[in-house]
Amino acid sequence: MKSRLLQRIALFSILTMIATFCAPAMAQSAGTLALTGDELVDEGKYEEALSYYEQAIALEPSKLPLAWAGKGVALNGLGRYEEALVAFDKAIALNPSYAKAYYQRGEALYGLKRYKDAITAYDTALAVNPQYGYYAYYGKAKSLAALGDYTAAIPLYEKALGLEPRYAEPWAMKGDALAATGDYQGAITAYEQSLSIEPNYILAIKGRDAAAANITRAAPGTMVSPMPTITTAPVTTAIQTQTTAPPTTAQGIPLSPWLGMIGIAAAVYLSMRKT
Questions:
Q1: CATH number of 23-96, picked from 3.40.1190.10, 1.10.390.10, 3.40.800.20, 1.25.40.10
Q2: What is the longest distance spanned by two Cα atoms in the chain?
Q3: Residue 194: what are its φ and ψ, rounded to 5°?
Q4: Of 55, 139, 170, 227, which one's alpha carbon is 20 to 30 angstroms from that of 159?
Q5: pTM of whole model > 0.85?
Q6: Residue 242 gets which letter from DSSP?
Q7: Angle of helix 133-146 relative to helix 168-180, nearest 10 degrees?
Q8: In the chain, where the domains are located
């Protein structure tokens, strides 16, 4: 009897150790999966990223706004804007101060051509976190341009480019807005700036040539319109909001020690059966 009691105590201790170590490993893995998804989004691997976010959500469905927002970003990258809105709404419900989710929600609305709603989302992102200035101003500018309000869009392009001048697309889109108001020389300057960043950017080349044609009136009596460059902004996870820290990203404990523990537990159990 004493021997069997000792065996049961040993088995209970081993199982307790397994439960103690497994629980934190499972909790940590949700954050790790979400951050892996972020890395894949940055590489443009949206389908693969989506699978990681969904695994993270399955583990922590009501505790990880990072994963819900990441899922939305991946869906934006795939052009699945309606589904993305659902994911962003989940992220915002979990963290109402999540600026990234508001900004990316604006991107989904822009993709759906709901430009006024997109402007509201960009404004909210900026109010929640001023670090989103470039993204919010750029998002509002392209939405206003899509609505045909080029005069209001131009100063917002300038604000965005004053904060972040390194990307070709916003310069080209500013050129489009300037050309639409008849400022062809200003448009050419913006297109040239775009081409200094990305020399083969075809939309900037076409826009510049169209604006130059209008200045020289290459086709008398005909005003040549620049090619539109309105596109969705590149998906990015570069800026993170000031929110609660995501779950630790420590890797889970390797499988082999668990196999050893389980083997020991099984051995103890079998020995009990034989006693």
A1: 1.25.40.10
A2: 108
A3: -60, -45
A4: 227
A5: no
A6: S
A7: 40
A8: 23-96
